[in-house]
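In this supplementary section we document a worked example of the pipeline. Step one takes a protein sequence of length 189 as its only input; no multiple sequence alignment statistics are reported here. Step two produces a three-dimensional model, which step three serialises into structure tokens for compact storage. The input and output of this example are shown verbatim.
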Amino acid sequence: MKIEQLITRFSLSRLPPSSHLFRFNGSVKQSAVLIAVVENTDGASVILTKRATHLRHHGGQISFPGGKIDEGDDSFVAAALREAQEEISLAPECTEIVGYLHPYQTITGFVIHPVIAKVPANINLTPNPSEVAEVFQVPLSHILNLDNHVNIYTQHKNRRYPITFIPYQHHNIWGATAAILRDLAIHLQ
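The serialised model returned by step three reads:
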């Protein structure tokens, strides 16, 4: 799929509800992530990161650039762009916001606001070693193929929840990142 096709499909169809709704008792923490889509010669890809292994939370896991919405952020879009710049040196002026997915609530009390942006193919990204071990791309065609998604179910507080896995090369994309990618894939079907 080319990025222009993604933009057209995204703008012409209504968002389905998020496929993952968790009940969380207590205050939720607001965060935002950037689904950065790059148009390569062989099709569109999504930029992902492998978090640094020394991080206390989710070390070594695959994620989007993103994080907590700070007091100084004007919006969840501003937070996603700020975090992408901090984590992988993606300058906000190199992005074109395409759209949004429904917020995703995690089982641990985070509400994640996914922001979709178009990014130039020749972008030079540098991981911030204090947060990111690796920056890589996954072809959008791999993400859109639901045969590449595996759901495993778990119990939490007497409720059954799916955990989505999307293996790609030597990476295992799972948890909130995989669930958000699944929401994107379902939306673009």
